[in-house]
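Board work, copied verbatim: non-specific serine/threonine protein kinase
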Amino acid sequence: MRRVIDDRFELVNRLGSGGMGMVWRAHDLALHRDVALKEVRPPDPALAENDPESARLLRERVLREARALARLDHPGVVTVHHIVDGGDGTYPWIVMELVPGASLAERLAEGTLTPVEAAGLGRGVLSALRAAHAAGILHRDVKPANVLLRADGSPVLTDFGIAAIRESTSLTATGSIIGSPDYMAPERIRGAEGDPSSDLWSLGMMLYVAVEGRHPLRKATTLATLAAVLDEEIPPPRQAGPLTPVLDALLTRDTAARPGPEELDRMLASVSEPAPAPGPGRAAPQDAVPPRQDPPTRQDAAPPGYAQAGPTTVLPTAPVRRPPVTAPPRPRPATLGTQEIRRRVRRGRAVAFTTALAGTALTGVLVWSLMPDSDTGAAGSAPSASDRAPDRASGGPSPAEEKEGRQKATAPAKNLLTPSAARSVIAELKPVMGGTRVTSFSLFDVHASAEAPVAKNKALYDVFTYRDGKATRERAGGTLMSGAKSVDLEKFNWDALPGLIRRADKELGVDEPTSHYVDIDPASPFDDYQPTLSVYVSDEYGGAYLRADINGKVLKKYPRNG
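↓ predict structure ↓
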């Protein structure tokens, strides 16, 4: 059915979705040109009905941001052509320049950048950020999926949909953090806003990923990633060469110690435009680091159109279904063991509580809202005095019971990454979910997680977990994004799993893997939107993965040093 917005913009096809809406390719019937049309809307469509004041503030914020962006004239910032505003009770559409080419996320899926290339790209993104910051706009979600690459390779910063006008922070919903946890600056997690240096941290993290091919702090869960960003030491880069001092300067948690934009541009220029080779009779400086010489692998044919936004987390005001993955998942570090997860959870909790006492209650809301109701008896938690010395008079456990408990606690968990175990997990989930169709599914060595449409309303979804032989409905999820796909887990050839894991161990360059896990994508945009199964292999330095179709045929490999 033909759909025209504002009697002028005919929707052609959907290009991608993000935390604050959906992007379409559209045809401008008045000017006879293709444009990108962003349908701005909250993650929860019920916002207008349940919280009209927040909906009004969101609409006001979006309009102010769009108008501010429309005043920017910079080649590195996507151009805003027009705003379609239907008035109160509606959400606006933003008409933007359609940038042909791939996103940086798509480019990095094919291989890393050299330090010289990354520095040049960094200067382009920095120039765009400086223009936005000068206009009072903070981006707040700088990441590879939000950087488009023109035909000449120059970057264009896009998706300011979750940006904030510096002077209107009150328009940000109270109690929520919007952004991508693995690229979010630590001060933003703690609730501080309004500092342009937070965008520079994100830029630094993006450049780290660009040259290293891995994210240094990404963990198996959002909470663990947030905790790592807050206080975990960042592993020194191994392939950054002359870019290393830039990364070290940007990825410091002391905001005052980060370089300013002018200094940062000079640092990047010294890498992207190295001094000429010394002439006869002149020795090269002893500390000079030669740039990497091997050329990067580039995409042979980048799909045209607006780059599709990567996953964006909105925490925690309303349950939100992440949009369908629109860039290949990047390799994630090793899956944490139970004790390590508990340790990180407690550490994240302590950080959140301390920050809340300091006056930034936002972080407390963020972290505590994600906590399980109780840690009592959890593996790795410190025993209380009563745990150490039970009161026999009050009915404490007998020595035999204590021994049995210790034996259960130390018994090795069943490995779920086998065909029979995977089918057992699905069989346990089936009656709890009301079927075997899912919109998201991850299988780890000792547990699994799934998101599945609600039987009575396919526009909604619930979150489920499997652990210790038991499947449970963890919580209500929220509203699915329009067009979200589901897939039947029973359709996958689980008998192919052992062979896929062996190939991952052998061919992905992770010499001594410490963990594996499987991730199901119901509709991979890089494989004609067919369902895929990805096998991740990791060690303490990061990981790599391969992607296969529903029958177990390998479609693409993303080795560690790809």
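Confidence is low (pLDDT under 50) at residues 165-175, 280-396.
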